């Protein structure tokens, strides 16, 4: 029996966390003994973790990565607090020099770089250690394992990182797993020398679980809303393009399409900014933030159109989940879009990433019920369950 460690940050509501739960539920525990290391034991998905893996005790040092600098200071962990503050100041200078509005990934790299010397190593040794969420410094530097594997879930062509710093980390891994071909290609566009160790394993999806959860009876404002209902499930962040969604709906409203409502399930750092934007455009009745939902599937099931307005994605789990629930989907033309949707068959991809292009395709789908029905009918014969993807992972564990 192989001894495996899987590490991630926490179990807050998100697509990566849902895919991790699906993978843990699908593992063959007769052949694999699995320890799960979460830097912090928090998040609404904690109760959904299966009982089979052993959840390691939370470590007070690694839990700081999910705390504010103020919290860390109050806990008298001054060394890590200073390291975090240093990474923040360094990033502010970097953004100013580069003229960037956003450099969250770069700050995350620096945070780990400065904190790493003060973090403890894990005592246990493993046959395989898997890091499920970037950055992967914990598995790279603080775990002893015969083989190390890292997972990538995003489009690396759209994030700002220190390539040389990252390469030092990636070199400590035997395999790098991308969740789609397009995700792999965008990654290799930035890290060409890692081609031989990069493979594709799609997010594990349980079609049966999603269908059952979609039937759960929950308070659901979509059910009684007679308007044309658009839904997006996403973190409220720059990457997910929710601000562009607000602006696209404003265009449609100005054209006289007043019976369209757009619901958002999710939470995140952009919430206050989005509320201000919604208020600015007088859209409080048409663009509605529902907040965090542990089970988003009944909301998806009740919508007329699922839209993913992201600026970039690795492979959006929620898009596939909407397809499983038989909904027409529209996604923006981010670089990895074609790996998820066959345009015109099981969904629609906008012509470009513009707000106007998003509004145009929404209007087309709103007016064309025949097209929406055709997309839904094409989904009926597709088997989205893919537990066979685990066989690819098992081959890497040998």
Helix tally?
15
Most strands sheet: 7 strands, parallel
How confident is the prediction overall: mean pLDDT?
94
Widest sheet: strand ordering: 3-2-1-4-5-6-7
Note the overall shape: globular
Percentage beta strand = 15-25%
Report the count of strand segments.
13
Care to describe what's here?
The chain is α/β, with parallel strands linked by helices. It has helices at residues 15-26, 69-74, 78-98, 104-115, 137-142, 163-170, 181-190, 207-214, 242-254, 271-280, 297-301, 317-324, 355-367, 369-379, 389-397; strands spanning 2-8, 32-38, 54-55, 125-131, 144-152, 175-178, 198-200, 228-233, 260-265, 287-291, 305-308, 329-331, 348-349. α3 runs antiparallel to α4 (104-115). The protein is globular.
How are the SSEs ordered, and which strands pair?
Elements: E1 2-8, H1 15-26, E2 32-38, E3 54-55, H2 69-74, H3 78-98, H4 104-115, E4 125-131, H5 137-142, E5 144-152, H6 163-170, E6 175-178, H7 181-190, E7 198-200, H8 207-214, E8 228-233, H9 242-254, E9 260-265, H10 271-280, E10 287-291, H11 297-301, E11 305-308, H12 317-324, E12 329-331, E13 348-349, H13 355-367, H14 369-379, H15 389-397
Parallel strand pairs: 1-2, 1-4, 2-3, 4-5, 5-6, 6-7, 8-9, 8-11, 9-10, 11-12, 12-13
Helix pairs in contact: 3-4, 9-13
């Amino acid at each position: 029996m192989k001894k495996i460690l899987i590490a991630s940050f926490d179990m807050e509501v998100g697509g990566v966390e849902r895919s991790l739960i699906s993978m843990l539920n699908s593992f063959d525990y007769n052949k694999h003994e699995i320890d799960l290391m979460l830097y912090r034991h928090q998040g609404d998905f904690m109760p959904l973790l299966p009982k089979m893996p052993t959840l390691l005790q939370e470590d007070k040092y690694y839990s700081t990565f999910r705390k504010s600098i103020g919290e860390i200071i109050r806990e008298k962990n001054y060394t890590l607090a200073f390291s975090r503050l240093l990474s923040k100041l360094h990033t502010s200078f970097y953004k100013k020099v580069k003229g960037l509005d956003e450099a969250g990934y770069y700050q995350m790299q620096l945070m780990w770089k400065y904190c790493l010397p003060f973090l403890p190593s894990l005592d246990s040794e493993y046959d395989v250690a898997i890091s499920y969420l970037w950055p992967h410094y914990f598995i790279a530097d603080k775990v002893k394992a015969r083989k190390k594997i890292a997972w990538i879930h995003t489009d690396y062509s759209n994030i700002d990182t220190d390539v040389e710093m990252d390469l030092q980390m990636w070199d400590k891994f035997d395999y790098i797993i991308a969740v789609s071909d397009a995700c792999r290609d965008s990654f290799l566009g930035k890290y060409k020398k890692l081609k031989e160790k990069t493979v594709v394993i799609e997010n594990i999806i349980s079609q049966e679980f999603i269908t059952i959860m979609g039937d759960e009876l929950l308070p659901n404002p979509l059910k009684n809303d007679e308007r044309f209902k658009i839904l997006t499930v996403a973190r409220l962040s720059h990457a997910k393009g929710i601000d562009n969604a607000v602006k696209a709906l404003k265009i449609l409203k100005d054209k006289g399409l007043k019976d369209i409502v757009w619901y958002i399930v999710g939470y995140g750092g952009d919430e206050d900014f989005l509320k201000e934007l919604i208020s600015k455009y007088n859209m409080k009745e048409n663009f509605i933030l529902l907040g965090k939902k542990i089970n988003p599937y009944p909301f998806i099931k009740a919508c007329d159109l699922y839209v993913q307005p992201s600026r970039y994605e690795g492979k959006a789990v929620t898009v596939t989940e909407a397809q499983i629930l038989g909904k027409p989907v529209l996604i923006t033309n981010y670089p990895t879009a074609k790996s998820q949707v066959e345009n015109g068959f099981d969904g629609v991809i906008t012509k470009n990433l513009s707000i106007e292009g998003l509004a145009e395709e929404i209007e087309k789908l709103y007016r064309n019920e025949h097209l929406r029905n055709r997309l839904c009918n094409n989904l009926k014969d597709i088997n989205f369950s893919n537990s066979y993807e685990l066989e690819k992972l098992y081959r890497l564990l040998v």
